């Protein structure tokens, strides 16, 4: 046990989706003793159960969870809690500090795009985006990615960039993602 961390053998080297690591035996938390107390605290906090959502509504939660799972190919547990991490940023008013002039502020763009995904799924598949099957969700997202202009009143390329920017920032800040890519953590 280091710095109060108790982990079972099954928890060591956890990767998203429980996939076999490309780096067998690697566990970024094995580097814990090399981090200062503040860094260790920040990293370990990311392994705690995620807080309840504060920014997104329940309907937005369903769409957002499905969207981020699609973007990051998170099909099975354990999943990096990307939606909760993005929600926490918006609840704290923490954004990237800029946004494309053609889009509303980031949080509002997420809200509008989630509603638009639900609208598209309802028209195309007669279900909400979250209830559409994996391949139907992927097809709808491919339409957004392929769109060269506006999609539901938003510049599609900028929207695609926004979704991926927030998804990747959250995902790759988590120790499970570090285990997956063999990243040894902060210096």
Question: Would you write up a description of this structure?
Answer:
- The chain has 187 residues and is mostly helical.
- Helix content is 48%, strand content 2%.
- The chain is built from 7 helices and 2 strands, in the order αααααββαα.
- It has a two-stranded antiparallel sheet.
- It is globular.
- The two termini are 21 Å apart.
- Mean pLDDT is 92; it is low at 1-10.
* Mean pLDDT score: 92
Task: Count up the helices.
Answer: 7
Sequence of strands across the biggest β-sheet: 1-2
Shape: globular
Portion of residues in beta strands equals under 5%
Radius of gyration: 18 Å
State the helicity in percent bands.
40-55%
First and last CA, distance? 21 Å
SSE string, helices as H and strands as E:
HHHHHEEHH
Q: Looking at the chains present, what oligomeric state does this protein adopt?
A: single chain
**Class from secondary-structure proportions:** mainly alpha
Question: Runs with pLDDT <50, length 5+?
Answer: 1-10
Number of strands: 2
Query: How would you sum up the major sheet?
Result: 2 strands, antiparallel
